[in-house]
Specification:
Oligomer: single chain
Number of strands: 6
Number of domains: 1
Number of helices: 3
Radius of gyration: 16 Å
CATH architecture: 2-Layer Sandwich
Strand content: 25-35%
Largest sheet: 4 strands, antiparallel
Length: 115
């Protein structure tokens, strides 16, 4: 098994778009989806939600507000999963609840660093 990161992207602030009941339902979908991955032994790292606030450090010690000020999408979180290959990882990503609210999932290989 190889490890892959599933990066969750969206272009909305969920707390501004959804009612508390809708947010509760969405969170339930997330818990069920990630719980299903974990139950199969495919969750390598529980991941985290990420704030929409941040800075980007660029060459020449330039610091800008926001991680991606040029685009409207933000990275809202990630998990690390185990899968046979990138196609298998993409199949797992198809069940991600962010897809139900207009977001998308980026699937990337993790290449271990031997330091």
């Amino acid at each position: 098994m190889n490890e892959f990161v599933l990066i969750f992207r969206n272009d909305f602030l969920p707390e501004a778009k959804f009612s508390p009941d809708e947010m509760q339902a969405i969170m339930q979908h997330w818990q069920e989806w990630i719980g299903g991955i974990a139950a199969k032994g495919l969750l390598a790292n529980g991941g985290n939600r990420l704030s929409s606030n941040g800075n980007t450090v660029k060459p020449n010690n330039i610091i800008t507000d926001g991680p991606f000020v040029e685009i409207k999408e933000i990275i809202s979180g990630y998990i690390v999963i185990k899968a046979a290959d990138i196609d298998d990882a993409a199949e797992i990503a198809k069940g991600c609840p962010i897809l139900m609210v207009g977001g998308n999932v980026e699937v990337r290989d993790i290449i271990p660093m031997n330091i």
